[in-house]
Design a protein that fits this description.
Elements: H1 2-22, E1 34-44, E2 49-52, H2 55-72, E3 77-80, E4 87-91, E5 100-104, E6 109-113, H3 116-129, E7 144-153, E8 159-165, H4 173-185, E9 190-194, E10 196-197, E11 200-201, H5 210-213, E12 217-218, E13 240-241, H6 246-258, E14 262-269, H7 274-279, H8 312-328, E15 333-337, H9 350-358, H10 364-381, E16 385-389, E17 402-405, H11 413-418, E18 422-425, H12 428-431, E19 435-436, E20 447-450, H13 453-458, H14 468-473, E21 474-481, H15 489-496, H16 499-508, H17 516-532, E22 544-551, E23 554-561, E24 567-571, E25 582-583, E26 588-590, E27 595-602, E28 605-606, E29 611-614, E30 625-626, E31 658-681, E32 691-697, E33 704-710, H18 713-716, E34 721-743, E35 764-769
Parallel strand pairs: 2-3, 2-4, 4-6, 8-9, 8-21, 9-14, 14-15, 15-16, 16-17, 17-18, 18-21, 19-20
Antiparallel strand pairs: 1-7, 5-6, 5-7, 10-11, 12-13, 22-23, 23-26, 24-25, 24-27, 27-28, 27-29, 30-31, 31-34, 31-35, 32-33, 32-34
The protein binds acetamide and zinc ion.
Acetamide binds at residues 339-340, 389, 406.
Length: 770
């Protein structure tokens, strides 16, 4: 009792001390260029008048004033040319576009900008300086105080974007609007909507009604992960989906424009087009004989179906679609995709081949250059600019196009810069929000590895080895939210927030001005605003990532939390960690067989999930693994993997045709059993190897085979996601070294319904020796 009381008192004190510290800064993101904080507050009340100079300012000020109506129970008034108003907007022609100055004293607020977007951002700054209750939907008993401060601010980049994939997961209009408002608070100015893919066509096109009658709907595979969803079968109904009517889209565009956000439409061609081709199959190459359906998931080979590049009707169709886009979207950019087009059919289609001959095109890749070039000519003739993914650099680059660098670190876009084109960076390895944002065991299932918020925050798009001209062609940065693993808008916002706040910092704040500790405070303020708006967001930043390494028969355990303002507390007796548990300060050296439980705490509040590591205990645990692959340390670290091969507990090899590792038990032991944990995840092409051999030795030179297992093709490609412990038992033998050799199957067979022809990969999490 006493211990608990004292411990509580101490953490309360620390909590208040932290808060006092926080009061001396403004907790704002993206971090403004220059901030001078004073003392005291300006209080907004029902007497407050906002003086504006013109109708545009009036509209911006009215939107700000409207924030107060419900939570404050009053609405500050807005008047053009009001005398003696406490709040005033003043045009300053010397400020750049989007820049603003803000002077808050106890008696007045002066806002300066050269045009509307600058004033809009000044209002967003005020909004984030107000109590978060300003976002609430009920009357709040609150003083509406803004700290005395002078701010000078302007963005680093003119293109500050989020891409939202509404094709994999249709996001209802109202939810898109809510996300747009949350983007606006972050001073982002571009929303790229990925409106079509194999999985759905999401925009009404008046001339082609089947695009939404057919293309917006797919068969519902319920909770199955994207990579495990079988294509639509004969007789099955397509019931899942939705689309935006043109009226809906006009509303989204106008709502975004009010918030100084440009909506860029993307219609992805020539691939990612099964939804459109399901509606109008005559636009595919005539060599395609299979029925084309909207895909519920990965689709096996179906994504290889492309618009036929030899068919004039395809270009007429796409120009008609573009015509309707031009009417709906005032954006200077029209995005036509261009990514991941596998030209299987183009290679054999007589129309495509004829086109290549007529146009003197040597490679099918050049045919895509031709295809995109024609769309570019059309879009340019209408006074707009074509945007596309970085595969456009694989052939003739469309004149004047803007390229999105996405593959890996996005460097393919530099090929476009070499040709004098502008580009935007949205590298998959850093800015794809589909990836895990925190320790994977606590996250909803998704693809690939981790793109943490810290990783996004630390991203510097301008690399030291760039040619100087690249920087001038870099328009900005984009976070890309692909929604394969989302079923609801809340699933999407969970992935987007808070990482989008880190992206905003990269996009807006000056180069080299980053301060993670300060960012965290600004983030908490922003998240408080999101919370009051009822937005779902992730708290993954409070979860703990473990790294466990074998070390002389023990286990070295490293614990990390993305938040640097927490304490990690742990127990070794199986109990839940609490505010009095041991504080983690440096890597622990633990005996095998122990259960470690840990979590992050702020004061007496547990902030994250409890991580439980039950370290196994067998003769291999903690022992070194000999072999060239550094990942093999995972095999004896005492920690089992989850069903996700990407969770950092699974070991795989670059060369899968044959892989070998040897466990050194560090002394001669009597052993009779070896068990190898082996993962299957069918949709991810994770399968057992073709065979496994176990050999033992006392001297690491002469080995004796004690087990061998050959897996049938049927056993290897059994569907599902499961861990199999492959067990080898033998008569008791003396051995110090245990050598395992795996031989891979090779490519997944043609009947593999998700990844035919792709390499089948094997993964092991742990070797147990008894
Ligand atoms: C992409 O991720 N395929 C652009
Ligand atoms: Zn064709």
């Amino acid at each position: 009792m006493n211990r608990l009381f004292l411990c509580g008192l101490l953490s309360t004190f620390i909590f208040f001390a932290d808060n006092l510290f926080a009061q001396h800064q403004i907790n704002m993101l993206p971090a403004p260029v220059q901030v001078e904080k004073g003392n005291g507050f300006f209080q907004i009340s029902e007497e407050t008048v906002i003086s504006v100079e013109n109708e545009e300012q009036e509209s911006l000020a009215a939107d700000f004033a409207d924030l107060f109506t419900v939570p404050a129970g009053f609405t500050p008034s807005v008047e053009i040319g009001a005398a003696n108003a406490a709040v005033s907007l003043i045009t300053d022609r010397d400020l750049k576009k989007e820049a603003y100055r803000l002077e808050v004293s106890e008696n007045s607020i002066r806002m300066y900008a050269s045009e509307g977007s600058g004033f809009f951002y000044a209002f967003q700054t005020l909004r984030l300086l107000l109590p978060s209750e300003i976002e609430g939907t009920a009357l709040a008993n609150q003083e509406w105080k803004i700290p005395v401060v002078n701010i000078k601010d302007e963005p680093r980049f003119g293109y500050r974007s989020m891409m939202l994939d509404v094709a994999r997961c249709f996001i209802p209009k109202e939810e898109v609007l809510r996300m747009v408002d949350c983007m606006a608070m972050l001073k982002l100015n571009t929303l790229h909507l990925h409106l079509s893919d194999d999985t759905g066509w999401r925009l009404e096109i008046k001339k082609y009604p089947r695009l939404t009658e057919v293309g917006a709907w797919r068969v519902d595979r319920g909770n199955l992960p994207f990579y495990a969803r079988l294509n639509q079968q004969e007789g099955e109904k397509a019931t899942l989906g939705g689309f935006y009517t043109q009226d809906d889209m006009a509303e989204i565009v106008a709502y975004a424009m009010d918030r100084r956000i440009t909506v860029i439409p993307e219609i992805d061609v020539p691939a990612h087009s099964c939804a459109a081709l399901a509606a109008y199959p005559e636009l595919a190459c005539p060599v395609v004989k299979d029925k084309i359906t909207v895909l519920p998931g990965l689709g096996g080979r179906n994504p290889e179906m492309l618009y036929c590049a030899g068919n004039e009707k395809v270009f007429a169709f796409l120009q008609d679609v573009i015509d309707e886009l031009l009417q709906l979207f005032p954006s200077p950019y029209i995005n036509m995709g261009g990514d991941e087009a596998t030209k299987t059919y183009w290679k054999v289609c007589p129309l495509c081949q004829k086109r290549m001959q007529e146009e003197y095109l040597k490679e099918v890749e050049d045919l895509q250059g031709y295809f995109m070039g024609r769309l570019n000519d059309y879009i340019r003739s209408k006074g707009r600019i074509l945007m596309g993914w970085d595969e456009l650099t694989n052939s003739q680059l469309p004149e004047g196009a803007v390229i999105l660098g996405w593959q890996g670190l996005g460097n393919a876009a530099l090929k476009a810069a070499d040709k004098g084109l502008d580009f935007v960076m949205t590298p998959a390895r850093i800015l794809y929000l589909i990836r895990y944002q925190g320790p994977q065991w606590f996250e909803p299932l998704t693809y690939f590895g981790n793109n943490t918020m810290r990783g996004v925050y630390d991203y510097e798009p301008v690399q030291a080895d760039w040619k100087p001209e690249y920087e001038k062609h870099l328009l900005g940065v984009q976070a890309s939210m692909w929604t394969e693993f989302c079923s609801t808008a809340a699933d999407v916002t969970y992935m987007v927030f808070p990482r989008l706040a880190a992206l905003a910092e990269v996009a807006w704040s000056p180069k080299g001005a980053k301060n993670w500790e300060h960012f965290q405070l600004g983030l908490d303020n922003y998240l408080a605003h999101l919370e009051k708006k009822g937005m779902v967001y992730a708290k993954s930043m409070y979860n703990i990532q473990h790294t466990v390494m074998p070390e002389n028969g023990k286990l070295r355990v490293k614990l990390e939390c993305e938040r640097t303002d927490v304490k990690i507390r742990y127990t070794l007796d199986g109990r839940e960690p609490d505010m009095c548990s041991l504080v983690y300060t440096e890597p622990l050296s633990l005996e095998k067989g122990i259960t470690l439980r840990c979590a992050s705490f702020v004061g007496d509040m547990r902030k994250g999930e409890i991580l439980t590591l039950s370290l196994s205990d067998n003769k291999a645990t903690g022992k070194p693994v000999l072999g060239a692959n550094p990942r093999t340390t995972l095999l004896t670290n005492g920690v089992r993997g989850s069903l996700r091969q990407s969770d950092f507990e699974w070991c795989t090899w670059d060369n899968l045709s044959s892989a070998t590792f040897t466990v050194d038990l560090q002394r001669v032991e009597s052993i009779h059993k070896v068990v190898l944990g082996c993962l299957t995840n069918y949709g991810m092409a994770v399968h057992k190897p073709k065979n496994l051999t176990v050999e033992i030795s006392e001297d690491n030179r002469r080995f004796t085979q004690v087990g061998q297992r050959e897996f049938s093709e049927e056993a290897i490609f059994r569907n599902g996601n499961y861990v199999e412990d492959v067990t080898f038992t033998f008569d008791k033998r003396k051995a110090r070294y245990v050598r395992v050799t795996a031989k891979g199957f090779g490519a997944c067979p043609a009947y593999h319904y998700m990844r035919p022809g792709q390499p089948a990969r094997y993964y092991f999490d742990e070797i147990q020796v008894e």
